[in-house]
Amino acid sequence: MLDTNTVNINTTVCNNYARLRPNLLILPIIAIAAVVAFLLLNGALSAEGYAELQRGVFISINSVLSQYPSLQYNITQLGNSMIIMSLIAIFIRYAPNMWSALVAGSIASGILSKISKMILSVPRPAQYFGSDSFNIIGEPIWGYASCPSGHSITVFTVLTVLLFAFLPQSRSKRVLWGLLLLAVGIVIVLSRIGVGAHYPLDILIGAIIGYISGILGILFDRRFPAVFGWIGKRKYLPILILLLVGTAIAIILKITHNGLIIFYISLISIIISIYAITKEYIGKNK
Question: Taking the model in full, what pTM does it have?
């Protein structure tokens, strides 16, 4: 049986998700259309035109942010789903319905990311401009999968699910909560330009797709609660614990390769989550 605090948190999440309406998808769709119109008006619908249009802005932002290589390289890791989700793994214990929506949203984001990258086939900055024409932090990323930014999609999928999960009742607090998460998201996705991996519009389009994915995840989980409703159920906790342990091992392997601070923070977070969920499972079996 869940304790009172857990029930209250999860109930808040469920109530907030119940109020979410599909018409919230209208604005991001309009935003995507606006980006397409902007590219059309500037004759930048081709891969080459898309890259050239952003050359100046990309190099300017990259030159500023790359002055802080360690900071940018740590921040950009938050676009890795394993890292950012490790930081909120504790909510499997306290808000399982948030996590079921997040899993659904992550699947949606993965599908949308894969399809859009295949269709658009935009060359990476290093591929198009050459790796010696701007600052690169970490290994250069080559290929033709620049747009949209997968890291940006991941970040805004997670932030959107969090946004509506804990949306305050007060209008002023809602604005502050939304602005806070937006600021966090902007800082994270700008690091993709800082490390030289993406153009500005890559991260904008990725952020919009992430927002759409988060909403789709919430709507799907609300409409089909049985699909991911097993998350947080007592009999499935051992499976979740094993998955978290596997994630912890994967993070440890990352640390052995590159001991970034964010990896240590993620590892500590997931260890705390493993402890909390294991404690709950043991307590339920007493």
Answer: 0.95
